[in-house]
Structure formats: C-alpha cells, structure tokens
Amino acid sequence: MVENTSENTEVTEEQAELSEQYRDIAIENSRHLIHCLSVIGQIEGHYILPPQNKTTKYEHIMPALVAIEQDQTIEGLIIIINTVGGDVEAGLALAELISSMKTPTVSIVVGGGHSIGVPLAVSAKHSFIVKSATMTIHPVRLTGLVLGVPQTLSYFEKMQERIVRFVADNSEITAERFKELMLRTGELVMDVGSVLTGEDAVAEGIIDSVGGLSEAIECLYRMIEGDTECSTQ
C-alpha cells in the first residue's frame, strides 16, 4: 500500500525547489563545470520569516556548500548576491564556510549586498560588484526583547567585532576604516552607517573589482586554470 500524504508532497516540492535553486551550470561547450549559488532576499536564520518575504535559508545553503566542496566534478563556485541582509549569525556562518573552501570561488553583488551581505561578498576568493549595486554598512541590530543591561551591550560589541574582523581579514579594507564607515552619522535617515556604490566599495578595498557576469565567470575560469591574477582593475 502506498501512502500519499500532504507532508510527503510538501517535502517533494521543497526538494524540487532546492534542486532548481542550487543547480550546476553544465554547458556542453563551456570551459569548466561551475556551480551557481544565489543569495537573494533576506537571509533566514533560526526564525522562520513571513511567507511573503523572499528568503535564503541558511540550513539549505550549508549542505549545498558541503556537497560542492566534495564533488570532484565541480571545478568552481560563483555566488550571486542580491540581499537586504538578515540574520547576522546565519550570514556570518555561511561566510565562514565559503571562505574556508578549497574550491575556487567568485562572488558578484548585483542590486544590493547590504548588512550581513558584506561578509558574504568578501568571503569568496575574488569579489565583483556591478556599478549600479550598493552596499549598506551599519552596526548590528537586534529585534525582539532587549534587556537594558551591560551584558547586552557587550554582546553587541562582540558580534560587531566578529564581523569587522572577518571583513578586514578577507578584503583590503582595514578594521579601523570599516568601523568608521559602520558608525558614520549624517548619511542614513534615522540611522548610522554608510551606503557605498559599486565603485565606492572597490575604492574602499571591500570589493576586489567592478564588473559584471562575464568578468566574474572569466575570473573564475582563470582561477580554475591556476591564474591567481584575475582582477579587471
């Protein structure tokens, strides 16, 4: 007897969605087999966001990264980023995994790479951003119940220090300059922080190159072929 439950149907639909989102780019006449990973919408962490939110679920990305790193047929990974940010710990966890991969990785920011999207962008071995894209750098925020005790402020400081250290270690910007951009006043309405255009992000040393899809893929091909110099600048 075959059981056909709604739960099984939901699982099948979710698997199909994941297979579509995290599929390989396998073109017969391409130079190399690469995998495309998209980080779009809001990065969903430990709490489920409302259904109308476009999200990237970190519990789906993590096993995908493990599979990519193990698969010997996949020669490179391109990460396309258009995110408003989201869960800080989830985003930073993904960035740490990407930065520790041996598989050649290239990221490209299109639209926006805001908030925790900044560490994700710099986690790749080479990062690109299109001219029209923007990146917002601001202090860590916390939603929900906030206790007005010194431990809360200490938690904020430690979390911000983790982000600053990661970005500084994986890009050309210094920790001091990144903090300065993070705490700048007078640029954002009712907030502190900075908004950088694509060219500004490169000038600050956060992103490696201004470029689009063709530049990012060509850079990834060259990395696969052993060329570490793929900057278009």
Structure explained in plain terms:
This protein is α/β, with parallel strands linked by helices and 233 residues long. It contains 8 helices and 9 strands. The protein has helices at 6-21, 58-70, 88-99, 117-122, 150-169, 175-182, 198-203, 213-224, and strands at 24-25, 34-44, 55-57, 76-86, 105-113, 126-129, 134-137, 194-197, 209-210. The strands form 2 sheets. Strands 1, 2, 3, 4, 5, 6 and 9 form a 7-stranded mixed beta sheet that branches. A two-stranded antiparallel ribbon has the order 7-8. It starts with 5 loop residues before the first helix and ends in a 9-residue tail after the last helix.
What attributes does this structure have?
alpha/beta; two-stranded antiparallel ribbon; 8 helices; 9 strands; 40% helix
